[in-house]
Structure formats: structure tokens, C-alpha cells
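Friendly challenge for the regulars: who can give me the C-alpha cells for this chain first? No prize, just bragging rights.
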Amino acid sequence: MLRTSVRQFSVSARNASSLKTLTIGLIPGDGIGKEVIPAGKQVLQNLNKKHGLAFEFIDLQAGYQTFLDTGAALPRDTVDILKNKCQGALFGAVQSPTTKVEGYSSPIVQLRKELGLFANVRPVKTVEGTDAKPIDLVIVRENTEDLYIKIEKTYTDPKDGSRIAEATKRITETATKRIAKTALDIALQRLKTKGSATLTVTHKSNVLSQSDGLFREVCKEVYESNKSLYSGVAYNEQIVDSMVYRLFREPECFDVIVAPNLYGDILSDGAAALVGSLGLVPSANVGPNIVIGEPCHGSAPDIAGKGIANPIATIRSTAQMLEYLGYSNPAQDIYKAVDANIRDNKIKTADLGGDSTTQQVIDDILGKL
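First reply, four minutes later:
Bragging rights claimed.
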């Protein structure tokens, strides 16, 4: 799907040859996460036959149901095991309540902070040989700050007694430099493989002149200060509201998009509509010591337990995890098998207009591996 291997922040590229067994944490979470994470596990187990990779799996807990059962949405054991034993992990979905629940906080947001998963890389791509409009772009989302630092307060207006809620938006030079370089490195790799590349910086600095203004300025500084390296990458900027409009009207105009946390979240979920379903779109949470593959869909409580969830986003996320761990060849095999399933257009779940079960799709992709 991404079809790049950004070696400079690939966790295990430097020692991949010495790793004979990869330890992978499995965190199903809530809802359909429990049904799709086994797809990633089955694919990895199937790779043993061709690539000689061995995997050890550790089942881990996190999510809203875990919070209800234990009082902790992200148990300390889960974090410690990921830090000390795992090279990679797969995270399913979280069913977070829309109203405030005392003591609850999204475990995936906390996990990104705890493990330093600073980049969320979300490729959005149609498959060649289908009737779909050709789309091939990557959204690189800063993963640690913006409104997702979750500093909020509610208080009473002394004038009229009405309630006021406020949230802090944080943009730092350090995090912006890091995500800008990550996005530019991905663009550079795509330049080498595709012959052209564009980086589009998304912001709202016309209104948020200090926070989004800093994001815009620092991204530009990173590009300009390394222009000899990135000279072949075209540099653009787009205000987020017009970005949404253009993304849906002319997605073929975009290549690599970099955005602060909130905009990146919204853009990547919306972009899934361009390729047919959230059930197709993967992501990788990338940090210095671990990579966590995470499908972009949510917990989908309306279909949970029915065995009809689309496993492709998880399977592609599994391939992305391997890619960022330095194992490009098995990742490419997974991408090709998924593409073949989509191209055949026979074994597909309801979100794509079919009537196949989750396991039938998994079995078809395993057969194509």
C-alpha cells in the first residue's frame, strides 16, 4: 500500500537481519477490533511458509470495555509489555463514549504518548486494474499534540451562569520539525519510485495565526533548510477547509499531505470515502522503538459480533507494520494479495457491496499469499 521503506525511522531496519523472531502485541480493543485483529495474526503466521519469519504473539488489553472491567482503559501491564518485549503491535478499535465518563481517556491517544508514536502514516490508494478513479496519496498526521493533549476545562460564566468549555491546542517547534521531516522523507522516497512528488502542508493559520501559524512556518523552514536534499519535491500549502473541498473534488492532485493531529485525523477518515470504505484504509503509528499497525475504522458497534467486518484495513496495517520494521518483501507480498482480492471483486464484505464474512475474506487473501 505505502510501498516505501523510510529507513531513517524504521525501528528495526538497522538490526532486522539479526531478528529471527518478532514479538507482536495484539490489542483488539472494542467492537469489531476483536474480529479483525485475528486477521493480522493469521497473515503473519502464514508468512512463515515463504519468508522464514517467526512470530510470537502477546495478547494485551485496552479499550472502553477494559475500563469498565478494570477501571483502566490502558492497563500499565499493556504499556510495559509493549515497551520491553515487543517490536511491533496491532491495535484494533476503541469504543469511546461521546459524553464525559469520569476517569476514562482514549487508550490509543495515551498509547501514542507513552510510546512516542509521533507519526501516524495513512496511505489512501486505489488498486490498479479496477474501475476506481486512480488515487495514490499518503496523509502524514502529527500524532502527539494539537487538541489531543486533552487539556480541557469546564467552568461557569460569572456573568450569566452558563457553562463554558475550553480546550488547549498545542503546537511545538520540536514535534512539527519531526513530522515535517518524516513527511518529506516519504515524499522523497515516492519521488524515487514514481518520478514526482509533492508535499502539501495543511493548516488554518489565517485564523489560528500562532498555533497553526507555527506549524506552517516550521514545515517551510524544514523544507527550505534542506532544499538540496528535497529539491525534487514540490512544496505546497493548503488551508484545511479548502483542502477538504479539493481532496474530494480532485484527489489526484495530492501526493503527500502533512497535517497537525486533528486535521490529519479528519482528512484521513474522510479520504477513505475516496477508495470505497474505511474498511480498506490502514495506518501505522511510528515511533523510535516500536510500530503499531492500526486500521482507520472505528469499533462499529452496529455490526460487532456478526462476523462481517472488513479485515482488509487490518491486513494492510499489518503489512505497514512489517514495512516500518524493515521487512519490505513480506509486506509487499501482503499488499499484492490484498490487491488481488480487491481486483477479483468476488469475495468482499458488505461495506463493499458483497455478502462475504470476515473469515471468507481472510481465507481468500491467505490463498493469494
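The chain has two domains: 1-124+277-369, 133-275. The first helix runs from residue 33 to 51. Your move, everyone else.
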